[in-house]
Design goal:
Elements: E1 2-3, E2 5-8, E3 11-19, H1 34-62, H2 65-79, H3 81-94, H4 98-115, H5 119-140, E4 154-158, H6 163-168, E5 174-179, H7 187-195, E6 199-201, H8 206-209, E7 215-219, E8 224-227, H9 231-252, E9 259-260, E10 266-273, H10 279-284, E11 290-294, H11 308-321, E12 326-330, H12 357-363, H13 365-378, E13 383-388, H14 394-413, E14 423-428, H15 431-435, H16 437-440, E15 446-449, H17 451-459, H18 477-492, E16 496-499, H19 510-516, E17 520-523, H20 528-536
Parallel strand pairs: 3-4, 4-5, 5-6, 10-11, 10-17, 11-12, 12-13, 13-14, 14-15, 15-16, 16-17
Antiparallel strand pairs: 1-8, 2-6, 3-7, 7-8, 9-10
Bound molecules: phosphoenolpyruvate and magnesium ion.
């Protein structure tokens, strides 16, 4: 048995798929047969081509043509004489073996690309790196662990899962996941809760403790894993699973009730989503709105930025499905632990304190405006509210609102409809914002407290780091004071205050938050009914 951090509740009994990427080791041969090396390179190119064609076709049919385009770029690199021709040339003139020849040429271009000012060329560097890895893997025979073809009842075990890995998981096959690193509020944990997949993270050495094919029990309630359990233990867990299902059925009875405390205060219990389709789980669980749409997931697992039209369709879809209930769309929050392969950013010492979210959007107004226009246009189809993440100052708030106003003007002159009175809110997730909340409240319609970040910045505890997770405490008095300040400041200006960090669904915190006067609690769909039960019994 191994202990970790309970990241997503529930039990799963399944077979391990160990996702470890074997390191590619390349060595220089002292004596080479040039013809043989050229033949090896040609063989690796052909193998890579076949793999890419297959992935491209599968992506196009299962996800979409747009998403498949990235693989077309990879295929083009394979045919580009600048790269491949030069590698062949290296074998011939420099007497290099195939893997060193590929590595030398590709690295030279990668260095060149990453120094370039041109954004497009820098983005191509990510493609080139992928193709280089694929060629080297095919040349050296090292294995690339892929999540594409999983068996039924799979428990994915990995050192870490990036948010884009998690987004790719086949929800019909994956019944649980376990990782070496991560905390309760790392984005892969949040995704697991959204998908209602039991998960335990931060188990430190789980990837060294299991192998593909092992049977494991994922106990997402207690945060533990049992490896190759005996029959008796399996029986116990099957019973626990049944009991949990019964409890869920009982909670379902609360799906259509309002959330009113015993004292008569009505609050909203809403759901957090990452993909438009997640809205269905929120509706099933009786969510009274969407308190956070993490739009960055629309930007992941694809080859380029999503267009205005694509985003408009996604936002409109959610607004329409919610049938007039509020939908808070948060603008792009990329950076930190969320990265885009086609938008390479500088390597930063402290990505969570770096070029992230609103900072990036105010700098890249081309990206920002495309999104704002899409959100505004969708606001004609439901009760959409807009929210800016990572606000640390009044200046940023005003600047973001100015860009929004510009987009409104553009749309008006184009004769496109949108809600001119759209509610504008900000996230309170940086201590500075909580401290100046009285000022900020004068300029916005609502706040939503992002405790996932607020806690990490207040207590100086990386939300991804399991070795300091014992300090990551939502009930730390400093955190509670900041929360209270934000709620009071909003109320003083007649504005409402919600919370969309994981603390909103934390069974231990709800009573305190109610006491502070929080108006809206937004959480993973799977926590909604339990939270409602606690609130109505309060
Ligand atoms: C938060 O920080 O609490 C939040 C809701 O945003 P995210 O988890 O996406 O950073
Ligand atoms: Mg945040």
């Amino acid at each position: 048995m191994k202990k970790g951090i309970a990241a997503s509740s529930g039990y799963a009994i399944g077979r391990v798929f160990l996702k470890v990427n074997e390191q590619i080791v390349i060595a220089k041969k002292t004596e080479i047969d040039k013809e043989e090396e050229k033949r090896r390179l040609e063989e690796a190119i052909e193998k890579s081509r076949q793999q890419l064609l297959e992935i491209k076709e599968r992506t196009a049919s299962e996800i979409g043509e747009g998403e498949a385009e990235v693989f077309e770029s990879h295929l083009m690199i394979l045919d580009d004489p600048e790269f491949i021709g030069a590698a062949m040339q290296n074998i011939e003139s420099e007497q290099l073996n195939a893997e060193i020849a590929v590595n030398t040429v590709m690295d030279m271009y990668l260095d060149m690309f990453s120094d370039m000012e041109d954004e497009y060329m820098r983005e191509r560097a990510a493609d080139l790196r992928d193709v280089k890895d694929r060629l080297l893997r095919n040349l050296t025979g090292s294995i690339y662990a892929s999540l594409d073809n999983l068996e039924d009842n799979t428990v994915v075990v990995a050192h870490d899962l990036t948010p884009s890995d998690t987004a790719q998981l086949d929800k019909n096959k994956v019944i649980g996941f376990l990782t070496d690193i991560g905390g309760r509020t790392s984005h892969s944990a949040i995704m697991a809760r959204t998908l209602e997949i039991p998960a335990v993270v931060g188990i430190e050495d789980i990837t060294l403790s299991v192998k593909t094919g092992d049977i494991v029990i994922v106990d997402g309630v207690a945060g533990k894993v049992i490896i190759n359990p005996d029959k008796e233990t399996i029986k116990i867990y099957e019973k626990k699973k049944l009991e949990l299902q019964k409890e869920k059925l009982e909670l379902k009875k609360l799906a259509n009730t309002k959330t009113v405390t015993k004292a008569g205060k009505e609050v909203i219990v809403a759901g957090n989503i990452g993909a438009p389709q997640d809205v269905h789980k929120v509706i099933e669980n009786g969510g009274e709105g969407i308190g956070l749409f993490r739009t960055e997931f629309l930007y992941m697992d694809r080859g380029e930025l999503p267009s205005e039209e694509e985003q408009y369709e996604a936002y409109k879809y959610v607004a329409e499905k919610m049938e007039g209930k509020p939908v808070v769309i948060r603008t792009l929050d990329i950076g930190g632990d969320k990265k885009l392969s086609y938008l390479p950013l500088q390597v930063e010492m402290n990505p969570f304190l770096g070029y992230r979210a609103i900072r990036l959007c105010l700098d890249r107004q081309d990206i920002f405006k495309t999104q704002l226009r899409a959100i505004l246009r969708a606001s004609a189809h439901g009760r959409i509210q807009i929210m800016f993440p990572m606000i640390s100052s009044l200046e940023e708030t005003i600047k973001a609102k100015d860009v929004l106003k510009e987009c409104m003007k553009e749309l008006s002159s184009e004769g496109k409809s949108y809600n001119e009175n759209i509610e504008i809110g900000i996230m309170i997730e940086i201590p500075a914002a909580a401290i100046i909340a009285d000022e900020l409240a004068k300029h916005v319609d609502f706040f939503s407290i992002g405790t996932n970040d607020l806690i990490q910045y207040t207590v100086a505890v990386d939300r991804m780091n399991e070795s300091v997770s014992y300090l990551y405490n939502p009930m730390h008095p400093a955190v509670l004071r900041l929360i209270r300040m934000a709620i009071d400041a909003a109320h003083k200006e007649g504005k409402w205050c919600g919370m969309c960090g994981e603390m909103a669904g934390d069974e231990e915190a709800i009573t305190t938050l109610l006491e502070y006067g929080l108006d809206e609690f937004s959480m993973s769909a799977s926590s909604i009914l339990k939270a409602r039960q606690i609130i109505i019994n309060n």
